[in-house]
Amino acid sequence: MPVWLREHSWRQTASAVYLSLPVRGLRVTPANIFCTDQYLKVSIPPFLFEAILYAPIDDTNSTAKIGNGIIFFTLYKKEAAMWDSLTVGNADKEKLQYLRQNAVLKAHEKAKEETEAKKVTKQEHKKYTLEATMKLEEAERKRIEDLKEKERQKVTKELELWKKQQEDAEKQKRVQKEGELHEEAEQLKEKKNEKMNKTRIPNEGPSKTRLKPTKGCGSCSMFSENLKEEQLPAPRSAATIKINFTSRVFPTALRESRVAEEEEWLRKQAEARRTVSADLSELEDLKEEEKNPDWLKEKANKMFATGNYLAAVNAYNLAVRLNNKLPLLYLNRAACHLKLRNLHKAIEDSSKALELLTPPVPDNENARVKAYVRRGTAFCQLELYTEGLQDYEAALKIDPENKTIAKDAEKIRHLIQGTMQDS
């Protein structure tokens, strides 16, 4: 049974009621107080205080202060008037029960409304936060796009300036070269004129000279002292002699040449020219250095070193089109295909490199070892361990001191043995 708290005091004005409830020795929290517009309850088990108020109050603005063992209520009236008493008088139990239930229902409805209001407020705050975040992200995205556009314009201007400088430099070189060629031509012309002037005998009529008599015996001299003046003959007329030689590509004489080797060289050159001119529409836009397989190989090697394997493959492809007889092009392209997981292409390029690295000589040992290892690696990644082991053993025959290849070959043997045991 609850213990009713009967001791209390109150006073009023036209607009408010001031209620003091002593609770000495009791620990009171806001959770112990329940108040609606016409119902007030303080529950501190086992103590209980309950009041059905005389008239409705503004429960929203009303307050309760706890301190010094007293709960002091300030209850603001909804209508300004003086109450005859604090609570409703002459109320039966049924009416009191109805008022209690009505107060609880109103409290639940009010709590539900507050919950809904908080939910709506929370959604509005969330929506506002989302909109603010989207605006910030849009502003940041726009700022980044502006920075990118500025950087792009800057790079474009620098590229155009560089191109203009290159064109000006090439134009200046061309003008300088033309000037040098003109000067050389003038110098050659002057030298030729000087040479012709030196070799030309002036036609001034008969040249007369007097031969002095030689000293010695007069009877033995071929010329006598009384030798008459003689007229020198006129210079011979100029003429051109045509000489025809056997047409040859090589500057050496035919008797010094090796016909078989020269024909082989000419055949290879013709094949190379056919390869270059096979698709002239694609190659005519290339620069001169880009038509050089060695330059393309160095460029592709740098791309491979930076991890740009696809671009390196494209450079090697063009180099192979220009010259398909260089084994290093296939060997390096096989390494790129291994990085890109193009395993069948890596096997094809390694096999082509081995085919071109014949006959086996000490100078191409390192290249042959790389070709066997790369082809063996591709076989192993395709789970063709037997073929891969054969290539690793071939590499070991060439370089038996290579511990890395020996260790990898041993791992492949263990894999083959494990596969055989599982089967």
TrEMBL record:
GO terms for molecular function: nuclear estrogen receptor binding. The lineage of its organism: Eukaryota, Metazoa, Chordata, Craniata, Vertebrata. One of its GO terms (cellular component) is dynein axonemal particle. Residues 3-87 form the CS domain. The gene is Dnaaf4. It holds the Pfam family CS. TPR repeats lie at residues 369-402. Keywords: Cell projection, Cytoplasm, Neurogenesis, Nucleus, Repeat, TPR repeat. It is found in: Cell projection, Neuron projection; Dynein axonemal particle; Nucleus. Residues 167-197 have a biased composition (Basic and acidic residues). One of its GO terms (biological process) is determination of left/right symmetry. It comes from the Eukaryota. This is Dynein axonemal assembly factor 4. Its main location: other. Transmembrane segments: none annotated. It comes from Thinocorus orbignyianus. SUPFAM superfamilies: HSP20-like chaperones, TPR-like. Residues 167-217 are annotated as: Disordered.
